[in-house]
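debug: dumping io for the single-chain case to check the tokenizer round-trip. Nothing else runs in this session.
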Amino acid sequence: MGLIGGTALSTVAIPKAVAAGRTQVPAKVQAPPVRLSREDNVFLEDLTRRGCMFFIEQADEVSGQVLDRAANKVSSGDFDKDRSIASIAATGFGLSALCIAERRRYMPTAQVKTRVQATLQFHLNKMPHQHGFLFHFNHVHTGEPFGFSEVSSIDTAIFLCGALTCRAYFNDGTPEGTAIGELATQLYERVDWPWMLNGGDTFAMGWRPASGFIRSRWNHYCELMMLYLLAIGSKTHPVDPITWDAFTRPPMVYDEYEYIAGADPLFVHQYSHAWFDFANKRDAYANYFENSVTATEAHKAFCLSLGRGYSDDYWGVSASDWEHGYVAWGGPPLMGPVNGSVVPCAPAGSLPFLPAQCIQTLRAMKDRFGADAWGRYGFCDAFHPELLWYDPDVLGIDLGIGVLMAENLRTGLIWKTFMQNPEPVAAMQLCGFQAE
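debug: decoded output
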């Protein structure tokens, strides 16, 4: 039976307090470790293996870039030649997934090292960048950015989280491991983090060649924590730790739940947690792991309250495809045309937060809808059984968050590996994090 310990998973009432104008969320009572049944582990192993195969098969062998999306109902692992758009965020998730693939023997060690080294070399030497920040979407083979793409601060951060995971994982004294470490360090240390502040206290969301900095900023709590912590921990171009206090932490109240959140999809409570280990730690404002537990509980309660087919065995909506394209939807509060569709990465990305409930719904959805919703790479990105709509595609970032969180639930591998890097540890200390 699987076991994950040291993680507080129970829910108790959270009184609301305000410090320095921002919500402060006290700690919760710690729950016993979570035990996984044999059937749970079999399911999670299948989900993990299929997700990792996406990152192995749908990446260019030379550039290492991972496709933003690919078809799911396929019988072979051929590269999806109908697609050419790669995402640096998908590639960042993919680098971390390659560590899982090596550990679980989905891919030979020598091949994984070769793939990781080629990926880092290409991104360091061939990919266009601005002050170390990479373009969000690029041609999967050439690395040339598409005209619609921006230089993205948050997606660069996701890529670097993957690179630093590989730096720590392959720190084995071999020539290949040393090369991986040096390349990852160069990619991280060339990023000019103060440049992306653009004279402000919070980071710009990006930069465009034709118009300069995007006006929107990362200025309220969401997936931004990784961005700020990487910047604060930088050894070459750090920003002042005071920036950690610059973004707001708005209070969210839904039914009996009180937590820190903006009006954003559920994934914002998952992404930084895929790499940074926030469990049993808090800063002056919150225990962010427990905050994500509450956010997931609130999201499930929100789904069930809608009366649109959601149940204990069928819930979860995060930014994803739907019948008419891509949409940022979910709640609370209600965002977008939530119509009874389900997005499997919503519960998959929250596996460490609500293990029993997330595993229950994921297994139930596979058992009930697997003939249509399950393919070579696991669940399709979203589906609506009553409308007979099943997305033909999977998305790299949505598969990625599920793969990493499933592994973190089972072994803590990505947390333990990523937190071997000294920069994230130093950054959290500078931001005032303390053990509980």
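debug: round-trip ok. The first helix runs from residue 38 to 57.
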